[in-house]
Design a protein that fits this description.
17% strand; binds zinc ion; 3 domains; alpha/beta; three-stranded parallel sheet; 14 helices; globular; eight-stranded mixed sheet; Rossmann fold; 367 residues
């Protein structure tokens, strides 16, 4: 058929430092300090495949892409996208196929948000004598498009970078606007596609959200893409860019334990998902709301680790001590495996006398 495909055009500069690539009448766009020149078209392909799959169309790329990438896109990425989102399995073609070695860009970056997984990855790198050339912080939908919240969080990331002598690079995208989907169901694609747009970053250290035995396609469909992302991150990356996955060795509680002993995290740990709190927060307020599910499960792990007092800048510890029984009871209503493992931790700490987490939470969380 003549029109069964949509075209992704070569990237071009736009106004206000944005760079775009057109997918018919949809403009995919990126900008930021990490992007100094027109990005490779490879950076726009992951989102183009998602959009084409939803539209039931195939994809024609106006440009040269490496043969290995074309093969991965057709036989790894497109089938995954089709099955994960129950959409069309996109066939991808290009106007020119490149062969031969592709030089990798030289700088490395750790994708860094100052959350538990970020700090744990920093610990893993430091432990083997590695230091990323930069922290990369990406806005691709994680902040509900609230740029004010992003700038507050970015200031915190920059403080960590200043203390460690690591520069902070940023990338902003419109990927969440042109492909509307819960961020948790597509963050891996949005973030790594954005990272591929960086001009000289060739190695991205990407934080695992789960211990390796927790990985599962079914859990990913139910709870979020992070349950399967190590199996898919290489399926759409170009040869000039590699993502290295850190943290298969520890679940969230084990990671929180390690982070609870990192002085750099005491002042800067930022895990809160309460956008309202973040938007209205004054500098003298704790970094985290202390009330959302992510805050509560982190507070449970810090409490059991005996590290609460060290995190008085990150959380309202007095409030937690007064309300934790009720907070854990609420967390036990969650279906999310990480929430439930925190409830289990609270239960066993209470039972063994390791920590007192308050008594009015149920004796057995739902499974
Ligand atoms: Zn919170």
């Amino acid at each position: 058929m003549m029109n069964d495909y949509i075209r992704l055009s070569a990237p071009h500069p736009m106004s206000n430092d944005w760079y775009g690539a057109k997918l018919e009448d949809i403009e995919l766009a990126v900008r930021g300090s990490a992007i100094q020149s027109i990005p490779s078209i490879a950076a726009f392909i992951p989102m183009a495949v998602l959009i084409a799959s939803r539209m039931g169309r195939n994809l024609r790329i106006d440009g040269c892409i490496d043969g290995a990438l074309l093969t991965k896109l057709n036989y790894e990425y497109a089938p995954f996208v089709s099955r994960f989102y129950d959409g069309h399995c996109v066939s991808i073609s290009a106007s020119e196929i490149g062969h031969g070695p592709v030089p990798r860009r030289q700088r490395s970056a750790l994708m860094f948000s100052a959350g538990i997984d970020s700090f744990y990855s920093l610990h893993l790198l430091t432990r083997i004598g590695m230091k990323p050339d930069a922290f990369l912080n990406i806005h691709a939908g994680a902040h509900d498009d609230n740029l004010e919240t992003w700038s507050v969080r970015l200031a915190n990331v920059r403080s960590v970078g200043d203390e460690l002598g690591i520069s902070v690079e940023t990338i902003e995208t419109n990927f969440h606007r042109v492909y509307s989907e819960a961020h948790v169901r597509c963050h891996t694609f949005r973030n790594l596609a954005a990272a591929m747009a960086a001009s000289d970053i060739g190695i991205l250290y990407y934080s695992a959200a789960h211990e390796v035995s927790e990985l599962s396609f079914a859990a990913a469909k139910l709870h979020g893409l992070d349950f399967i992302d190590p199996a898919i991150i290489r399926s759409f990356l170009s040869a000039e860019f590699e993502a290295i996955y850190l943290g298969w060795d520890a679940d969230r509680i084990a990671r929180t334990n390690v982070v609870s002993r990192m002085p750099i995290a005491f002042k800067h740990l930022d895990i809160c998902t309460n956008q309202n709190y973040q938007a209205l927060r004054r500098p003298e307020n704790p970094i985290n709301c202390g009330e959302c599910r992510k805050c509560i499960r982190t507070l449970v792990a810090l409490d059991v680790a005996g590290a609460l007092d060290d995190f008085a800048h990150a959380f309202d510890i007095g409030c937690w001590r007064r309300t934790k029984g009720e907070a854990i009871r609420k967390l036990a209503m969650s279906e999310h495996p990480i929430d439930l493992s925190a409830v289990n931790l609270a239960r066993s700490a209470e039972a063994t006398g390791t920590a007192s987490l308050g008594r009015d939470f149920p004796s057995g969380p739902r499974r």
